[in-house]
Every structure is written in C-alpha cells, then in structure tokens.
Amino acid sequence: MTETTTLADLPLREDLRGEHPYGAPQLHVPVVLNVNENPYPVAPDVVADIAAAVAQAAVGLNRYPDREFLDLRADLATFLRTESGAELAPEQVWAANGSNEVMLHVLQAFGGPGRTALSFAPTYSMYPEYARDTLTTWVTGRREDDFTVDVDHAREQVRRHRPSVVLLTSPNNPTGTALPLATVEAVLEEVSAVGGVVVVDEAYGEFRRAGVPSALELLPRHGNLAVSRTMSKAFSLAGARVGYLAASRAFVDALRIVRLPYHLSAVTQAAARAALKHSAALLSTVDELRTRRDETVVWLREKGFDVAESDANFVLFGRFADRHSVWQGLLDRGVLIRETGPAGWLRVSIGTAEEMQQFRTALQEVVAEK
Ligand SMILES: *Cc1c(COP(=O)(O)O)cnc(C)c1O
After folding, report:
1. Cβ(98) to ligand 1 under 6 A?
2. CA–CA separation, 136 and 130 (whole Å)
3. What does the alpha-carbon distance between residue 145 and residue 318 come to, in Å, rounded to a whole number?
4. Dist. CA 309 → ligand 1 center (Å)
5. pLDDT tens across 189-226, in order?
6. Locate the Aminotransferase class I/classII large domain: which residues (predicted)?
7. Domains in the chain, CATH or no CATH each
8. Can you give the pLDDT at residue 1?
C-alpha cells in the first residue's frame, strides 16, 4: 500500500498542490559556490570548544532544553554590541533554527489570513514560502534597474497594500544591494501609519562595505522594527542552524507566542554559545572575502559582464541570453553556482582564492564556446 500512495491520495492543502520543496541543488562537485556559505571550515580550536560544550550538554539531554535560552540571547546581544554598537537587553533578542525559522515566526505572529506581507523584488526566494505557509498574501514592489529601492515607490506600495509585515533585505539576496537607512526610515514611517512591522533581513550584514550602516541603529526609535541576522553566512556555521533577530521586547514577546516549545535544542544552544566566544576568530575571514568579492566584481566587469554592486559575499552578474547553459557549462567543469535572480543573471558566492580561480577559468571557457 505505502508504495502506491501518491500525493493526490492525501488531503494536501489545495494551495500546496503542485508545489515543490524549496532548495538549491546539493551536488557533490569540487567547487561549491551556490548557497553563499563561508568557504572556510571552523578552525580546530573552535571545533574543540564546540565539541566540549556539546558533550556537556549531552549529559543533560534527558531534560528539555531551556525554553527561553536567555543565556544565548545575552551572548547574541553582546555580539551585536561589539559588531554594531547596539545596546540590547537579552529580552530584545530572539533566535531559532536559522533566520528562516525566525522569519517564519514573524509571519506566524504578524501575518495570516486576510493580511499582507510586502517586499521588493527581486529578493530572497524563501519569503513567498513563509507567506504561503502562514496563509499570508504575498505582494512585491519593484527594484530599479540597479536593484535599489525607490523611496517614493516604496512609500506608495505600503499605502496601497497596507501590509502588516514588510521585509527589507539589506544587503539583498540575490543582488547584493544594501539599502540606505533613509529608505528604511521612509518605509517605517509609512508602515507605522498602517500599523505594520518592518523586518530588515541583514543575513549578509557582516559583509557590508565600510560606511554602510546597519539598521540596528534605528531600533531604539522604532518598536515595530526588527533586524534579523544569522550565523549561517559570515560566521561559517550554516550547519548549526542558528539565526536571530533584535527588536523591541514587545516584538520578541509576539514571537514567543508562536514558537514551538523547546524549538532550539540544547545541542544547538551549546554549540552557538561556544561559537560566539570565538566570534572574532570565526569572523576573521570576512575581510578577506570582502576583498575577494570586490576583486571578482572588477574582474567580471573587465571581462565585459554586467555586475551588480555587492555588499554581500556573492556577486550577481550577467547578462546571458541562455543563462541555464552557462550554469550547466560551469557545472560540467566542476563549478556549481546559482541560477537565480532576474532572467539573464547568475549568482556566484565568494569562495577561497583557488575556488575563484577555478570559477574564472571555467567561465572564460564557457563563454568562449558560445
Ligand atoms: C541565507 C539567508 C538567510 C539565512 O538563512 P538561515 O536560515 O539563517 O541559514 C536569511 N535571509 C537571506 C536573505 C539569506 O540569503
């Protein structure tokens, strides 16, 4: 019986029929530059500390974990103070299994049937899924040709759709574009008028160029603003699944209502806290990756490609009449990048020097063939 059951036999929600599980291909190839991971593995001394902390946590695994994980939230607050000068109480920080789950909490708490979430496309392809899963109406305004967000357009979109949630991604994925704080503030002003909340997704915040501010600065003045971050990218800890956000206490209290009890395992909490003790070491590769990103942008432009300005650890470039064949040609040469973003563009994550050299060689071969 089991083998003959198809999805059509099961009472799947009508709106989920025909949907596929999200995810970039996980292929075993020599050069993996498709999901914006930090290419450098965790250093041995940090691994040792994480392992020891997890071993200690394992002793207590007969008990449920700390549901409020205020120790981890305090460590994250301390980190944000060091990184951006933000003064935050532990109660103003929230964490979950990746910022994907944090964002789902946001949509569960503030979205829902009859409500709307607004963002500006092209942007992160997961957002419409959180909206779908929480039965929230999903709408997008546009980004300009250079992928910036026009302030007047943004204001107009908020007035038109009256969203309860606005997601602003800065630096944006897949374009790399950071938003000026003036744009965030203008959106906040309109959103506050319609009673909504704004989340600035700074998953790539640590990679921003010098002089580019973090929206954390705006938190003290806006109770309906949250800034989300993750340990998946700059921190080299994608496998640990730890994302977090900073906001007002009231905002965080709303998320506490919808989270599953004990959603963050004792193992995750221990690993994250041990890692945060080494935040400087874990982030020590960020400068190098930033430099290599800027070099990649220059090189691609020299080769005649269109390249989006990037404040992240990836670069969007194009434009190709047949981007899929370019993507496939790179893959045939052992280099996996991402076929995403507007038609004609491809995205490459910044890897090690050797990986980027292999990317360059492969790309030149592929375009020479065309
Ligand atoms: C990678 C990414 C995240 C982080 O996801 P995690 O669940 O924390 O791994 C969040 N937002 C954007 C825009 C991303 O690209």
Report:
1. yes
2. 8
3. 13
4. 19
5. 999 999 999 999 999 999 999 999 999 999 999 999 99
6. 31-362
7. 7-35+285-369 (3.90.1150.10), 44-278 (3.40.640.10)
8. 54
Sheet with 306-307: strands ordered across: 306-307, 314-318, 346-349
Burial of 144 (0-12, 13-18, 19+ CB in 10 A): exposed
| Both tokens assigned to 288 | 């190098």
The first and second tokens of residue 221, run together, are: 């003045």
34 touches ligand 1 (CB under 6 Å)? no
pTM of the model: 0.97
For residue 48 the two structure tokens come to 């040792």
Question: How sure is the predictor about 2, in pLDDT bands with cuts at 50, 70 and 90?
Answer: low
Which token pair is 254? 């709303």
The rounded Å distance from CA 1 to ligand 1 centre is 39
Q: What is the pLDDT of residues 132-175, one digit of tens each?
A: 999 999 999 999 999 999 999 999 999 999 999 999 999 999 99
230 lines ligand 1 (CB under 6 A): yes
